[in-house]
Request: fold
Amino acid sequence: MMHPDATLQAQSTEVTSPLVSVRLRLIGHMEAWTVNSESVLPPGRKTRALLAIVALSQPRPVLRSRLAELLWSRRPEEQARASLRQEIHRLLEVLSPSGQDILAITRDSLALRPGVVWVDVEEVLRATTANPGSLALLDSELLEELDGVDPAFDVWLHAERERLRDRARGVAETLLAEASAPETLIQVAQQLLSIDRAHEGAWRALMRAHAERGERGMAVQSYDRCRAVLADLIDAVPSPETQALLAEIRSGKTVRPSLPVATQANDLRPDTKVIPSRSGVKVGVLPLTLMGTDDSESHLALGLAEEITSGLARFRWLFLVSSSSVAQVINESRDAAAMRRTLGLDYALDGSVQRFGKRLRITIRLVDLQDGNQIVWARRFDRTSEDLFSLQDEVAAEVVAQVDQEIQLIESRRAIRRPIQQCSAYDLVLRARPSMARLDHTNFMQGGEMLRRAITLEPEFANAHAQLAFWLQFLLQNSWADDIEATSAEAVLHAERAITLDPQDAKGFAIAGHVRGFVQHRLQEAVALHDRAIQLNPNLAMAWALSGMAFIGLGNLDEAERRLDRYKQLSPMDAAAFNYDTGFCVIALMRRNYEAAVIAGRAVSELNPAFSGAAKPYLAALGHMGQEQEASIVLRRLLKLEPGFTIKRFLATTLLEREEDRDHYTEGLRRAGVAEE
Reply:
């Protein structure tokens, strides 16, 4: 047994607090020592598990019902609670030599009293890049001898192990990204590998650092160790990037130098090097659980999982693992930690199917495996079971469209938290998205800088070109472009470049179609590009919305409405609704349904008051209705967003092709007080 002094080598100064009376080691073999070096470790595995749960949950108390579920999941509730009372009594007895009341016990819950127990896991979780010393405590598996205490406890323990590893891994990865000297790289890479033996980035850093020091044999040896570890842990081989580095080292060529650390967090200088990273996330879809149904519904559960997997695979930045592969990995408890550890998943989709007579209830949820297995999105579908194939298609389409949006939002937030010097082109595109959506001029312009920087880093990154084309189109639409002709030409250039670089990317074609229509005023060609986008990915809400706008321009309002309705069905809470929903306002205006246009205009303006595009049809409808007071308010807001907006400027930028549509729109603006020139 390890002496308690050995556990204190990396502890923080907080351990010296006079309140601390017990030091608890949960990493590796569990240990509990008083300040007088007397062991107070419970002899029974259940009692140890009880102490571990309470310790890892602090400072939050743990409900007795939760403890009973985790430790006696196979017993009736009353028996489980009785067993819990016995274990609490044993725990109090074994902790009595500490000289303090360690546990705060109420009728409903248990907790550790604040400040009286030092826990090694807490120290690891407190590690930062500025103070990483406590990472050394993570030298073994969490509670490595407590597997098999109870099936429910095993599931909980897997999740806790992943939470601890993910936190430590994140700190170590940041340290590795900031390291430059080969000696430091070797030290940090070895630290990261002690946390995650299968971390290929750390193995490559180790190979590169040895090669830079002229230790080519050590570099090759590191590759061999990497190959053996990957084969042993996840039955995989080193990635092409790792194999290419090995070939580079063996050839004797100069190995790329370590990346420098920039000095300012917001430095976007062209010469700043960034760390390359993958350009997407990995998603797995589990077969749905049958609840209250017989095996006759199993084909629906499996079919839905496969349909959702196929639909998500059409999004170029999502990498899908087949649901059959996921099913082989998970056990009956549907262990999320195992999916992340074995398959490298970032997100998992799970759910259930329930039957109520002729109706089915399908529940789908998205679990973020990178952040404590949190449920970040959920949706319930109540449908009749008369046409199961149509039901399957309908549910899968809506799930796919909304999950794509949710993951993009989460990944954008993660990219923003990442130091910009460590951002890849992919990260920069993600960071630019919120800047574009807010339409604040300063942030919007910074978003454009990020997109240009992404293209500088990866000139053949199709999505960066597509997003820059979209950004330039917004620049024109908001009248923020200094040189309209040059900006228009640049938008066209990047839109065409995007679909050339990736002719299978639906989003690239949707944006190219919008640029072709809005910037070049070639709507028939725009419709062809939009149709290509829908063919590539019929669940891309953006393609339906932007194509609906093109049909508004052509004067085909019925088709425009059909396409916009489809977008809304796929993604009712779309992040870009302030832009797309403006189409409903224009349709109502063109149909002379001014009251509906005003209602739609108000709603869209509330979604994003900084978007001037929604104010224009709203204002025109108010003009036709003679609502002078409200029109005056809307006009002032519009002129604040677009100073100098006139009828002439509107006619130069509008999508409307038919003369009667243009005349009707401008007459409404004129009646609302918009100047001619």
Summary: The chain has five domains: 4-160, 179-251, 281-415, 424-554, 581-677. Residues 149 and 588 are 64 Å apart (CA to CA). Confidence is low (pLDDT under 50) at residues 1-17, 256-278. The longest helix spans residues 388-417.
